[in-house]
Amino acid sequence: MCQAIFDDASFYRSLFQLDQAIAADVQATGCRHCGGRLHVADYPRKPRGVRSALDASYQYRLSFCCATDGCRRRTTPPSVRFLGRKVYLGVIVILVTALTHGLTPRHRRLLIERLDLWPQTIARWQRWWREQVPMTRCWLALRGRFVPPITTFALPGALLGRLTGDDLAMRMRQLLGLIAPLTTASWASLIPVSVDPQKM
Ligand SMILES: [Zn+2]
């Protein structure tokens, strides 16, 4: 069922390839402050919940530092894997929030145990989707693409349901790509972002 995606190693590899492609574009653009060259300066990460399906690429979030003396500023590309500094991957934040709506208490408990979640974490993610995401420039730019409009109270499930990919993995990749601007503040000059992902 839809939870199978949590263990799908090829799905996670495909997300890494997307992140690599996004990062390559960002690196080619150069430092947004001074135009200098960007050197690799990845962040170490330890994503929780699905570790066994992840390869070594998930121990890092792709990031860059400017090579110019006196600037040296960091540029972190948008990501389809990591949602800000949260310890859970974006796919978990989306799917758990969407799923828990229709789960029986028992299945909800199993999901919580399996992904090593705190029940409060799910409530926080639900609030983030319903209260903060609808206020972001990313969402304001996105929502006009959907007719009839998506009820923000039903995020993220309603958004996932509107995408047209053949299977869940494809729709999930589309969704992660759409919300990728929310995953970094350092690209704010080029991609509008107004949520601090650290608060999640
Ligand atoms: Zn620079």
Features:
40% helix, two-stranded antiparallel sheet, 200 residues, mainly alpha, 3-stranded antiparallel β-sheet, 5 strands, 7 helices, binds zinc ion
Describe this structure in words.
The chain is mainly alpha-helical and 200 residues long. It is built from seven helices and five strands. A three-stranded antiparallel sheet has the order 1-4-5, with helices on one face. Strands 2-3 form a two-stranded antiparallel sheet. The two termini are 27 Å apart. 30% of the residues are buried. Zinc ion binds at residues 31, 33-34, 36, 66, 68, 71, 73.
Helix count equals 7
What percentage of residues falls in helices of 4 or more residues? 40-55%
- Helices and strands, in N-to-C order? HEEEEEHHHHHH
List bound small molecules: zinc ion
How far apart the termini lie comes to 27 Å
- Spatial ordering of strands, largest sheet: 1-4-5
Mean model confidence by pLDDT: 87
